[in-house]
Design goal:
- Two copies of one chain form a homodimer.
- Chain A is built from 14 helices and 13 strands.
- Chain A is α/β, with parallel strands linked by helices.
- In chain A, helix 10 links the parallel strand 8 and strand 9.
- In chain A, helix 5 runs parallel beside helix 6.
- The longest helix of chain A has 20 residues.
- The radius of gyration of chain A is 21 Å and the shape is globular.
- Strand 12 of chain A pairs antiparallel with strand 12 of chain B.
Chain lengths: 393, 393
């Protein structure tokens, strides 16, 4: 097969708010090769990601992503890795390139799986797709009472695990934060899995993060996610050395496998969270999963969008029976629900699996794509470099 | 003062080739505040960088760079740091944001310096601007003979230091590479400073890089630059442990101060090379310079474009008398020469200095901006998010 076309669809809710909800827009990628069509998603910021695919070159190491993708052979996982290496080299100085290529790379695996009649996780070398326990991703309430109500609601909806994030945590006193942690614990019960995500709120301030550790331990929190910015390896490492039972989690900001490996090796995290829509796709995510296994820590997906991204994100650790927690978009916007004809719904035990179907096993709903698509055009020096394509059918 | 406007000018040579020459296009940033105007440059890939400034938000942590810049107070270096922190937080998931903000941040220092009547290096806390020895950045020839001729030419033009990069190195045998190194040494003479840049050619392959070390040592090469990709900390560290007199150099790919610090702390480099147009501007570059001093290694600028970027790149280590090597665009394209009315020319000893003039001390040539500007337009959902501004005057 040969890669014939790569099309980007910029999809959005009519209104996008500033809440910490990644399901408000999407950049869908459609790739065609050898009579097959595959799909992927770039996370996030559709406009710069489109620009990185079509931009004029600045020089040899600053070429658009398209230069390393269009027309390339696609017959094996090795072909995908070769394309990825060329993107990294030829688009070295286009910072956004990793996000742009992430969606393309997923689509290449989707095509390869469809062509070979195999799910992607089999192409990655796994023999089975093991069930994962989804956690509900929720925002902390404005006060502890609201946090408790949200935890109760998640439990009532059947979730055995809940992650609370952002909101007021880290902005007030450690005591105020402690009230939120205890409220969530109380509502979830003693056997609920409680996770906390503070969204880089402490920047590089280890002491402020460490001041929350006693309350996190007391509330039986399993992980503290993203205390610092994505590259703050030394701060991660310093905090990890002060942790008792709580482990650090991070990695969603990694835009290559090395960055995630460093968080494990230097940052001392216990859970590595990979967004396939940012790290360069499924291939580098699988490398991180292998490294996590070698280092005895746990791999988790980062997915805050829709079920195509969810399927892609489950593939790299589908075969790891002991890595059982998965992020699951618990309250996505209508856009994110409408975009796929099928969904990865929890089974009767409340667990979800990477699908046992060719490729990523997800069907795109063309009507929804057409309904939510934003008309977009990029023009340089009189040439139209990008204009929103029509979704076929 | 308050930041009133931020304008981007996409400038390009009529033809851009794929040679490793970063002076073929430029993204000039013009910022106005309190009656002052400052300039900066984003390196590289103008279109994605513009898109990251104007893109619609995807969610609260994925906002355009503009959201954290326009209307902000600008009265001190602390104000610049506060804006930088907000960009990092609010544009967390826009990968390109660091490159976009780099040019803006330079312009903010330029304004502050002009308003206070001080050169930027004084605002950074330095008392003097020390002379640096510029090296000519050259490409290896197709064969050793051509490399020798280029080295001879650089010596004849008065350069005491020359860096050879890219070309065939790493693509053939170590013996073929050795011939290039020795040819360059022979032409430069025993007292010429010889530097080698292999542009990430070895990816993550430590053994292939190490196979070149004996020849590099024999040719008296001072540094081996970018053997691996920018995030390959462990590979840098492994190679550094095998080095004798040759030291590793790297850092141009760092898009925040942490990444550069990690190359020093984990990667074992002896020279840290910072591009102010990528790392987030002058402030984070100064943090890296401070860290380099603390760790006893040498700071060097990375500048392959024009003299506005050169002045910005010299500021963070202007006051470090012992850090004497600087990169200097030796054969830039006409665009890069025409863009500024003044140039940082070597003095009679062949040395260059950060200017002793308010701000960055560089005057932009409006005629050249107008002549090389590419008409550019970005449109989403019927709204024009960006259209090439007219350069005033």
């Amino acid at each position: 097969m040969q890669i014939e076309s790569v099309d980007f669809f910029y999809l959005s809710m009519p209104e996008v708010t500033l809440e910490a909800d990644g399901s408000q827009d999407a950049l869908l990628v459609r790739v065609a090769a050898g009579g097959h069509v595959g799909f992927g998603e770039c996370e996030a910021a559709p406009l710069p990601s489109i620009a990185a695919f079509v931009c004029p070159p600045s020089h040899g190491a600053c070429q658009p992503v398209s230069a390393s993708v269009l027309g390339r052979a696609l017959n094996s996982p090795a072909d995908i890795a070769a394309i990825a290496a060329d993107v990294a080299y030829n688009s070295m100085d286009v910072l956004q390139a990793a996000h742009t290529f992430s969606g393309i790379e997923m689509a290449l695996w989707d095509i390869l799986g469809k062509a070979l009649g195999e799910p992607v996780w089999k192409l990655l070398g796994y023999r089975a797709s093991h069930a994962k326990t989804p956690y509900a991703s929720l925002l902390f309430g404005d006060d502890a009472q609201q946090t408790m109500l949200r935890a109760r609601d998640a439990k009532a909806r059947g979730f055995k695990a809940a992650k609370f994030g952002w909101g007021p945590i880290g902005r007030g006193t450690p005591q105020q934060d402690a009230e939120h942690f205890m409220a969530a614990r109380e509502a979830l019960g003693h056997d609920g899995i409680l996770l906390v995500d503070v969204g880089q709120i402490f920047g590089e301030d280890v002491a402020r993060a460490a001041a929350r550790l006693p309350a996190l331990e007391a509330a039986g929190v399993v992980w503290l996610e993203e205390p610092f910015h994505a590259s703050a390896l030394q701060e991660y490492g310093a905090l990890a050395r002060q942790c008792g039972k709580v482990r650090l989690a991070g990695g969603e900001g990694a835009h290559n496998a090395s960055m995630a490996r460093h968080l494990i090796d230097y940052g001392g995290i216990g859970f590595v969270q990979i967004d396939c829509g940012r790290i360069g796709g499924i291939g580098p995510a699988k490398q991180v999963a292998d490294h996590a296994v070698a280092k005895g820590i746990t791999y988790v997906n980062h997915t805050f969008t829709w079920h195509l991204a969810l399927s892609a994100s489950l593939q790299p650790f589908a075969g790891l029976a002991d890595h059982t927690i998965c992020e699951y978009p618990a309250a996505p916007k209508e856009l994110a629900v409408a975009l796929t004809r099928n969904h990865l719904l929890p089974d009767r035990h409340g667990a979800v699996c990477a699908p046992d179907a060719p490729g990523l096993g997800i069907e795109i709903d063309g009507d929804a794509v057409r309904r939510y698509q934003l008309d977009t055009e990029l023009r340089v020096a009189g040439r139209i470099l990008y204009r929103s394509p029509k979704f076929p059918g």
